[in-house]
Amino acid sequence: MYDHLLGGTDNYVVDREACDELLRLAPSTRELALVNRAFLVRAVRYLARQHGVRRFLDHGSGLPTRPNVHQVAQEVDETSEVVYVDNDPDVLSYGRMMLAEDPETTAVLGADMRETDAIFQSEEVRRLLRDDQPVAALFVSVLHCIPDDDDPWELVNRVARQLPRGSYMVISQLVSDNPELRRQITQFMQQAVGGRWGRVRSTEETERYFEHLEVLETSGPVEVSCWLPDSDLAPRQTSNPEWIEFGAVARIR
Ligand SMILES: C[S@@+](CC[C@H](N)C(=O)[O-])C[C@H]1O[C@@H](n2cnc3c(N)ncnc32)[C@H](O)[C@@H]1O
Questions:
Q1: I need a surface site. Which of 49, 56, 128, 136 has the fewest CB within 10 A?
Q2: CATH number at residue 151
Q3: Protein residue whose Cα sits closest to atom 27 of ligand 1
Q4: CA of 241 to the centre of ligand 1 (A)
C-alpha cells in the first residue's frame, strides 16, 4: 500500500484497492506517505553530514524506493553501511535484488523487529557494531505496526541500550488526536493487513518514545515535514490532515 501511495509499481491490485478505500477515509494519506519518505531521506542526510554517522540500522525498511537509505548515506560517504530489517517476504525478495548493487556495504535481514536479541546477534548487525562507531537506528513509519501488548516503547528503549555510545534514533509513527478517527483508521488498517497491525496513536503516546532521547533541531517530535524542512522535498501536510506522521531525530543519552 505504501509503495502505491509513493507512486511505485511494486504492488498488487489488492493493495491499490485498499489504498482507494483508505483515501476515501483519509484523503491526505498520499501526501502523508510522501512527506514521511522525504523526512526519512532528510534525516539520514542530516545525520551523515552534520553528525558523521556512517552506520544505519533500518527497522521496517519497506520495499526499495529510490533513494534508499544506503544511497542517501553513500552520497556523503561511499563507505557508509546499512542493514535493512523487514519481515515481509516480498520486501525481502525485492530488497535482496537491490543488494546485488552493493553487497559490501548493504545487507538485508529477514526478521521481526520485535526480536531485538536475534537481530543484534545476527552476523549482519554484529558487523555493523564491530568497532563501536555510532549507529543511527531508524523506526520510520513502522512503530504503529506494533500492538501495545508488544510494547513498542520498550522496543525503542531496548534497541537504544544495545547501540554504541553516541548513537542516534530516527522515529516516526502515525498519529491522530481525534479518537474517532484513530479508531476508524486503525480498524480499517487492521482489516487491510489481516490483523498484523498495531494502532494509530496520539501525540502524547508518541512523545513517550523520546523520553530517554535528546531530540535534535526541534524542541520535541513534530509533524515530520516540519522537522528541518528542505525546500526541495515534499510539501507540508495540508492544514487539516486526518492523520499525520509525527516524529523526530534524536541522540541516545
Ligand atoms: C510503511 S512501511 C515503512 C517503510 C520505510 N520505513 C519508510 O518509512 O519509508 C512499514 C514497513 O515495516 C515492515 N514491518 C511491519 N512490522 C514489522 C515487524 N514487526 N518487523 C519488521 N518489519 C515490519 C513492513 O513489512 C513494511 O515494509
A1: 49
A2: 3.40.50.150
A3: 62
A4: 22
